[in-house]
């Protein structure tokens, strides 16, 4: 009978990287050697890369916030209304919870005064220190509510928490916190004339940068971005006449813009199939006639399922599955979620540990 010693580490990595994160946690407890191999940075990165490559073949994991303020996780979406959710033991705020995903981790902002970095699968979490909101750099200016982002810096092998403050005279101040070192850095960018802050507090993290939809000339939307490794701002081309009131998210591994048309008949979801390529924007139209027109909660695409034949949405505070080809929609019934769905996000099944990444500035959260 073969034993663990019969298999080289590279074979073990290849086999176990195909498994979800949960069973790998159990295999780690079988032996010290397995625990060492399955906890190594090389294996964790290999597992993450494998899971990210499979996102289009399986339903992404979804984290849902509901009323009263709580969190639930859906791991598999079933056709026969047998979808099951489980409760997540994460801190929840009284007024608001903001969730920002990146590589299986989520940044949780509670009532805009506490921040946690958590892995929804392993349930590890650490508290991230707040930025010096009242430091001299910000007191000098009036500023709007900040924009939050979490992004992986591949150059420095580091996760970074970014807050963008929009101050007077079209200026932006970036507060960048390194999870790896616990070091915080503040950057002031040159003014971008006639651009205004986004109406959505979450940045879209993609390709080593945070992205947001800013209001431009005549209230036409513009995608602005910050490359966190090089600390350089740049712009991404958008479809023509995208309104500044639109929302920018990530859907199926691509940037997407949700443009809620004012005539009330449909919502346009623009998807950028090739990053940075203006001619790669494709449009998915979701009719509003299948929803209650009296409710005005914005549509929020979460993930594709069935090889992109269907997309899971939060619409009018309910979970909905929209068939892209047929143009039809149905309610998604989930065991354990009988209340209002406020928001949701898709995240990658991951073994990335916030406690292992944790720099000197954070505090490990209590369970």
UniProtKB/TrEMBL annotation:
<dbReference type="Pfam" id="PF00646">
    <property type="entry name" value="F-box"/>
</dbReference>
<dbReference type="InterPro" id="IPR036047">
    <property type="entry name" value="F-box-like_dom_sf"/>
</dbReference>
<dbReference type="InterPro" id="IPR050796">
    <property type="entry name" value="SCF_F-box_component"/>
</dbReference>
<dbReference type="InterPro" id="IPR006527">
    <property type="entry name" value="F-box-assoc_dom_typ1"/>
</dbReference>
<feature type="domain" description="F-box">
    <location>
        <begin position="7"/>
        <end position="46"/>
    </location>
</feature>
<dbReference type="InterPro" id="IPR001810">
    <property type="entry name" value="F-box_dom"/>
</dbReference>
<dbReference type="Pfam" id="PF07734">
    <property type="entry name" value="FBA_1"/>
</dbReference>
<protein>
    <recommendedName>
        <fullName>F-box domain-containing protein</fullName>
    </recommendedName>
</protein>
<dbReference type="InterPro" id="IPR017451">
    <property type="entry name" value="F-box-assoc_interact_dom"/>
</dbReference>
């Amino acid at each position: 009978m073969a034993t663990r010693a019969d298999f080289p580490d590279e074979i073990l990595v290849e086999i176990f990287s195909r498994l979800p994160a949960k069973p790998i946690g159990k295999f780690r407890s079988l032996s010290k050697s397995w625990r060492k191999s399955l906890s190594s940075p090389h294996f964790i990165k290999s597992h993450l890369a494998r899971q990210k490559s499979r996102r289009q073949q399986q339903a992404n994991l979804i984290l849902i916030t509901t009323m009263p303020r709580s969190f639930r996780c859906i791991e598999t979406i079933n056709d026969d209304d047998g979808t099951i959710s489980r409760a997540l033991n994460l801190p929840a705020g009284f007024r608001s919870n903001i969730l920002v995903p990146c590589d299986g981790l989520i940044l949780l902002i509670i009532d805009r005064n506490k921040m946690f970095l958590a892995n929804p699968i392993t349930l590890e979490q650490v508290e991230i220190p707040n930025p010096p909101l009242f430091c001299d750099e910000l007191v000098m200016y009036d500023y709007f509510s900040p924009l939050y982002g979490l992004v992986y810096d591949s150059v420095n092998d580091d996760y970074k928490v970014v807050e963008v403050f929009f101050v007077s005279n079209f200026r932006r101040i970036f507060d960048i916190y390194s999870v790896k070192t616990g070091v915080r850095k503040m950057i002031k960018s040159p003014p971008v004339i006639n651009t205004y802050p986004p109406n959505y507090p979450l940045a879209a993290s993609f390709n080593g940068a945070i992205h947001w939809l800013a209001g431009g000339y005549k209230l036409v939307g513009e995608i602005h971005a910050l490359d966190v490794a090089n600390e350089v701002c740049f712009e991404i081309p958008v479809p023509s006449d995208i309104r500044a009131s639109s929302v920018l998210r990530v859907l199926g591994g691509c940037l997407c813009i949700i443009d809620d048309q004012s005539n009330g008949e449909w919502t346009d979801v623009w998807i950028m199939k090739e990053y940075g390529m203006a001619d790669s924007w494709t449009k998915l139209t979701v009719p509003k006639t299948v929803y209650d027109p009296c409710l005005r909660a914005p549509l929020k695409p979460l993930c594709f399922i069935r090889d992109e034949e269907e997309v899971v949405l939060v619409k009018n505070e309910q979970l909905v599955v929209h068939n892209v080809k047929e143009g039809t929609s149905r309610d998604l019934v989930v065991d354990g979620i009988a209340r209002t769905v406020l928001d949701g996000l898709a995240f990658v099944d991951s073994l990335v540990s916030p406690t292992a990444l944790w720099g000197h500035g954070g505090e490990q959260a209590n369970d």
